[in-house]
Amino acid sequence: MYNNSYAQTLRLIGQDLEELLIEKFELEVDKSVFIVRGEIVVSESEPKSAEPQPKAGFFPGLWKRKTISPEPRAQIQAIERRYTAADLERLAREGRSHSPSDEKPDFYKPGEFLRVIGAYLDKKRGRLLKLCKDGQQVTLHYETMHGEKKTEPQRMSSFYDLYIHMCKQRHGTT
After folding, report:
1. Contact 12/96 with Cβ under 8 angstroms?
2. Which is it for strands 149-155 and 137-143: parallel, antiparallel or unpaired?
3. Which of 39, 55, 136, 163 could be cross-linked to 60 through a Cys-Cys bond (beta carbons 3.0 to 4.6 Å apart)?
4. In 3-state terms, what secondary structure has residue 53?
5. What are phi and psi for residue 56, nearest 5 degrees?
């Protein structure tokens, strides 16, 4: 059965987003559906050119075709992903909720970072409304257990101490 803590939920979503290299996004909760909207940079390469170079110069007998690598062109692409409870259960079953033991934790990977934000919300017993990430800036919109709506703009680095504490707890050191 799927564990619906924000730490677990946001970690699963973050791990699913890792392949996209997304730096700027909004994660909004609409009833029980988590909706991620953002922009990713997609690089396109032009076809490689293999035009022959002139057979001149000091060593014309050693001439070889030179492949000219294209300049990659970056294009911004809008994305939207929706995660229902069934999607999150599937991701959890696929084993995405556990990092390989030989891989070092990385605070800047979306799975780890979003897990920390989820733990922060779990600790506050808040209900996530919206999370916006733009580079190193994070803005949390949540509702407290008393029904008060809060908005907290923070730097990503402000969650680092909590991340270290969580890592120590996971590995049995304090």
Report:
1. yes
2. antiparallel
3. 55
4. coil
5. -135, 180
Q: In the chain, what percentage of residues exceed pLDDT 70? A: 75
Per-residue pLDDT of 102-112, as tens digits, reads: 566 677 888 89
- Written as six digits, the tokens of 88 are 């999150």
Where are the extended beta strands (E) located within the chain?
Answer: 24-30, 33-44, 73-83, 127-134, 137-143, 149-155
**Whose CA is closest to 154, among 170, 135, 139, 169?**
139
Q: What is the DSSP string of 144-160?
A: -TTS-EEEEEEEGGGGH
Determine the Cα–Cα distance for residues 60 and 39; give it in Å rounded to an integer: 49
The token pair that represents 162 in the structure block: 């909590």
Q: What is the CA radius of gyration of the chain?
A: 23
Domain coordinates of the chain in residue numbers? 6-44+73-170
pLDDT less than 50: residues of the chain: 1-2, 97-99
Determine how many CB atoms are found less than 10 A away from the CB of residue 116.
Answer: 24
Which residues have a Cβ under 8 Å from the Cβ of 107 and sit 6 or more positions away?
113, 116, 160, 163
Sheet containing 33-44: give its strands across.
73-83, 33-44, 24-30, 127-134, 137-143, 149-155
